[in-house]
Amino acid sequence: QVQLVESGGGLVAPGASLRLACTGSGPTFSTSFMAWFRQAPGNEREFVGAITYTGFTTYYARSVKGRFTISRDNAKNTVYLQMNTLKPEDTAVYYCNADQAGLTSWGQGTQVTVSS
Known about the structure:
This protein is mainly beta. It is 0% helix and 53% strand. The strands form two sheets. Strands 2, 4, 5, 6, 9, 10 and 11 form a seven-stranded mixed beta sheet that branches.
């Protein structure tokens, strides 16, 4: 299984940008379907976006489409979530997820707070 560590969270003002990174260890990262989820206080964890192992295809939740971009660098075992035009409702703990042939792994999460 892939071990995942997220980074890049923080406190930003509305309209700002952040880039999250998720670095994985293990030989299967480059063949893993990678996704980002988020969970706000009192809410269930929700899908944000995903990227195929080749990086050729991405998927986004309607709430972030056009503002967030997922990319990956398999040479660095890292997947990125570029978040632009952040809104207060984007405040949540963001989690990275790897799925490799049905085996899933989660990172510990990184906090993103959007507030003026």
